[in-house]
Every structure is written in C-alpha cells, then in structure tokens.
Amino acid sequence: xxxxxxxxxxPDLLEGPFSHSIMKRAQDKGLLTVRTHNLRKWAxxxxxxxxxxxxxxxxxxxxMCEPLANAIEELQLNNTYDxxxxxxxDGKTFDQPMANQLSMLQNLLIICGHYKGIDQRIRDxxxxxxxxxxxxxxxxxxxxxxxxxxxxxxxIPGVLSDETSALTDSFQxxxxxPPVYTRPADxxxxxxxxxxxxGDPKKVEDWRFEQSVERTKTRRPDLFKED
Length: 227
Known about the structure:
This protein folds into two domains: about 1-155, SPOUT methyltransferase, trefoil knot domain (Alpha/beta knot, 3-Layer(aba) Sandwich); about 170-225, tRNA(m1g37)methyltransferase, domain 2 (Trp Operon Repressor, Chain A), CATH 1.10.1270.20. The protein has a five-stranded parallel beta sheet with strand order 2-1-6-5-7, sandwiched between helices. Strands 3-4 form a two-stranded antiparallel sheet. The protein has six helices and nine strands. α3 (about 95-105) crosses α5. By secondary structure, the protein is an alpha/beta fold.
C-alpha cells in the first residue's frame, strides 16, 4: 500500500480529486491512502498565522519556517518517508518515469507551496525532492499535488481493473499512445481502420506501434533520444 500525506493551507481544494473515480476506488481497495493536513494546525498564534512578509521586501507572502518544520517533524514521529516532496515551479519536471518510480515507494510526504512559496530553510533542511508539473505558475501547490498523486496512484498494482492499461499509456515507452476507436465501426462515414477489425493481434500490435512512433515524431519529436 502507498500512503501519501499532504501538507496544505487549503485542504478543501484536495477533497474532490481524491473522492471520486479511480483514486476513490484505490483507497476503497486499501491500495492507497491519502491524508491531508491543514498547516494552520501548526500556526504560530491564535490568528492561525502560517505566513509572513519576505525579508528584503517585495510583493506576496511566504510560508514560515516554524509551522512547516513543526508539521513535518510531528508527522515524522509516526511515519518514515521515502521522499519529502515540495511542489514548486522550479522543481524537476514531472514525467512518466518519475511517476513509475514514486509508485513503487511506500510513504510520501508532499508539501504544497502557497503565495510566494516556502522559506528556503525548509527546502534546505527537509525537502528531498522538488517537483514541477510544468512551466507555469499556479495559485498554490494543491492542484499540482493532485496531479502527481493521480499519476502515481493509477500505477499501483490492482488499482486499474485492467493491469495492462497503465503499461500502454502515453510516455511509458517514450512514445505517445496510438489512436483508439470504439463502436460503431462506421460513424457518419468515418470508418475505423480495417486492421483493427480483422482480429489479428500481431498485426494490431504492429499497427499501434507504428502509429505511436508516427504520432510522437509529429507531435513530440523531443521525446526521441539519440543513442
């Protein structure tokens, strides 16, 4: 089972993504546990303060050291984390190989940044992995954390009803997935490729591979790596 703890200042943002569909089924099966922790539980005063102005001036607020350190250390009393992850635009770009790697771990702690981010000392002292989901900025790390958890969770054996489904996803072989079709075979004159209707698994497999290669060359040539 994979257990993921998430520290956030807006836990309500994470209720929906983990309460439906595949992520809900994964938790119902006991294969995945996702626990959110409101950082304000460790606030420094009765006003639930967890942020302050940055030294040196400038716009925005920064999540403070004390609440984050206390939250992490309290959670560590009962958990040994394989990775403590900070969601940040300047982290390593999240991809399928990273999702595969993280899905094989047992305990993860994810820190969701907010405002202008978190005090650098927390990053230096506690964080073992920094992840970005793309070259853009969100209001906070919650949606990015949800993306990472979803990508990881669906890879856990037993989560998907078809065990081979995740293995044929885009990016698993550094290729995009091929086109897919379902019934009817003829929709308004647009027909399914004949090879998919002939019932020859080997020919279908070859066709899908060729389509994946061609689609990747056209849409994501950067995925091809020279030997």
